[in-house]
Amino acid sequence: MFLVICVAAIPTFIGLTYYVLQQRNRLEDISQQNAQRYVELAARNENWLLKSSMETLNAIASTPLIQDGDWKLCYQYFSDLLRQHGNRYTNFGVIGANGNVLCSGISANIGKMPYLGDRPYFNRALSHTGFVVSDSLMGRISDTHTITVATALRNGEGTPHAVLFAALNIAAVSQIKNHTLPSHSDDLTILDRHGTILSTSATDLGTPGQPLKSKDILNFSMLKNTGTKLMRGDDHKDWFVSYAKAGTLDDPEALTVIYRNPASILLSDIQRSFWIGTAVTTLLMLMALFAGWAGTQAILGRNIRKLTEAAKRLRTRQFDTRIGNQVFGQEFTEIANQFDKMAEELGASERQWQVSFQRQQGQNDILRRIAQDGRLDETLISLTRFAEGQIDDTISSILLLSVDGTRVISCIAPT
């Protein structure tokens, strides 16, 4: 019976274990989804910064001095803007179609300005409509590490005649300090389109201005706009790596935001939860098995013992005990009642057999005495005892009369 309970419990245990395993996988998926949401939130922050820069350039491009090309007043206008927004921008400027600087917010001495016609963002701005974002670069005018948002200034016919740009402060672009990381062991890195680090809180991926050291992460981040993956780092540790692209509508992949959190901590928590769940499941299953075993022994075991004892008594020809009122359950009670009926019938048959045996024995004794010409009184005594044995609670006697029937010669009454 206990084996039957075990067989019934094993599928339940397997099902519970599978459920715990599914919960473990689900928890891992949720952790990766949370990491992806976080990095997308950080990317939206960069998008907001670039969008605000575009709005600033649109406002500048619509001013009369820019539309009229009054470059002598331009310096004062741009320098005022830098004083107001110096924490976000390192320079505002206009570059002529020939690559020479027409105006800058840093200096009014245009003649000493460096040539910018070889800058990739300059040529892209001339050949594309809308706004473009540069790679990570060292500003030739500001002499600071920066990225630039630029757009072409066009005449009424749509022909570009200059490029308006805003050089962003890298500290404003990265804003790592403004991103509250979920854990102190996590890190956040921002790259330009070619994988150069703009800012990072990681110590093993490189420093700002250098290419990202991890080629695996760099190649992974080039696949599509977003992604999450479990990767082995150069430090031989497993990391959950999530990334998201950021940029303008015309240049949506200008920046890449990468978020890493150590998988060992997360997986150890998941693994611990898995084993705790498995242990609890096992404990509950063992408790259920023990309860089933105890219940079997208390109910089924007791009934079976009672039936076994009754069968043993029948084997020893003890037909006077009954067990119908000593067992539980409809089926066991029915079996016990059948045992009682069988014992009753066997008892009755046993008594009839004994009576028949005694009758035959009495008859044989009387016939033996007659055949051996035994004493008459002894033979008559045996006959009275035989008669008393045929009917319960009977007393018998024999009277011998004279020939004429008037006198009692002898009376035989052994009882």
Compressed to H and E, one letter per element, the order equals: HHHEEHEEEEHEEHEEEHHHEE
Gyration radius over CA = 55 Å
Assign a percent range to the helix content: 40-55%
Class by SSE composition: alpha+beta
Number of helices: 9
Low-confidence stretches: none
Total strand count, please? 13
What is the average per-residue confidence, as pLDDT, rounded to a whole number?
A: 81
Apparent shape: rod-shaped
Oligomer: single chain
Give an overview in words.
With 415 residues, the chain is an alpha+beta fold. 50% of the residues lie in helices and 19% in strands. The chain has helices at 2-61, 64-67, 71-84, 120-127, 170-174, 215-221, 263-315, 330-371, 376-390, and strands at 89-96, 101-104, 131-133, 137-138, 145-154, 160-169, 187-192, 197-200, 226-232, 238-246, 255-262, 398-401, 408-412. Strand 5 (145-154) and strand 6 (160-169) form a beta hairpin. Helix 1 (2-61) packs antiparallel against helix 7, helix 7 packs parallel to helix 8 and helix 8 (330-371) runs antiparallel to helix 9.
List keywords for this structure.
alpha+beta; single chain; 415 residues
Concise account of the structure shown:
The protein is an alpha+beta fold. Helix content is 50%, strand content 19%.
Secondary-structure map:
Layout: H1 2-61, H2 64-67, H3 71-84, E1 89-96, E2 101-104, H4 120-127, E3 131-133, E4 137-138, E5 145-154, E6 160-169, H5 170-174, E7 187-192, E8 197-200, H6 215-221, E9 226-232, E10 238-246, E11 255-262, H7 263-315, H8 330-371, H9 376-390, E12 398-401, E13 408-412
Antiparallel strand pairs: 1-2, 1-6, 3-5, 4-5, 5-6, 7-8, 7-11, 9-10, 10-11, 12-13
